[in-house]
User: What shape does this take?
Amino acid sequence: MEYGAHGYLISKGIRPSQQRIAVMDYLLTHRTHPTADEIFNALYPAMPTLSKTTVYNTLKLFTERGAVLCLDIDGKNARFDGDTRPHAHFMCKGCGCIYDLPLEEVEFVREEHIRNLTVTDVFLYMKGYCRECEEKMKSGNDS
Amino acid sequence: MEYGAHGYLISKGIRPSQQRIAVMDYLLTHRTHPTADEIFNALYPAMPTLSKTTVYNTLKLFTERGAVLCLDIDGKNARFDGDTRPHAHFMCKGCGCIYDLPLEEVEFVREEHIRNLTVTDVFLYMKGYCRECEEKMKSGNDS
DNA sequence: TTATAAAAATGTAATCGTTACAAATTTAAA
DNA sequence: TTTAAATTTGTAACGATTACATTTTTATAA
Assistant: This one.
């Protein structure tokens, strides 16, 4: 099952406008968990009429419809992920990079504890330091 | 092992000023995952010289020293938790309430996947609707 | 096609949580 | 006490996001 952004949006019940396709395509082809601003800056050169508000509106719509994940991982910017399958995320507190991590299919929270809750989303975030930043800290450091 | 906020801060290597004790005490006695603003508003009446900046500075210090957890769960405000033991959180997308959830001691991510990463924090967030909000949505709704 | 309505995109201004910064105050050390 | 260091304070600034009114595009139907 392979679609492009256009077919993917339709499969999610989202009308595929030019702007929406561009944003979705960017997220499907860039697995860097970009911010709205990064997406805007990436698309703007080839789409000079694009508005930042449109990017925000589009990402909000995508998130509501389950077409993308909105990651509240750094408390500063929202980051977006075009891969909505269950997986964990690691963010480096040094350089800010974010990695995907495969998630084991185990019971994190026992069913009895969420029996009166309707769970729609689960996010597992790990924070720490990537290999590079760890090395930098070990050797000489802070200017 | 029982301390108050004062002893707790000392055990974390944090010098216990009047303001820091007040903030820490608030977090130890209110398990509502308050925002910085909520903490400020709660303490202000009894401490009219308190500055909001101090609350922010204090919470940042506490987080860095591992005395509290900073939850980036709603993408809007940072929320703080005086309980630093491993546990999960549930946030209702309707009313915004946040519940603690016991976390099973299982391997979420296989060791091999984080072998070149230094993990310092793990956050498990669940989102959805609490019982009350779920009921409200079922019966009549939106004004 | 043309008229009309609905949906989407746009740009500007506003909002609001948070941080920067410099001054004032408090605490610790000598 | 004197002096330095740490902490607190208030104001101003910052920056991500949203509100809002307007314009443009798209769909519908006459």
Q: What stands out?
A: Chain A touches chain B through 39 residues (CB under 8 Å). Residues 15, 17, 35-37, 52-53, 56-57, 60, 76-78 of chain A lie near DNA strand D (CB under 10 Å from a C1'). Chain A has a mean pLDDT of 94.
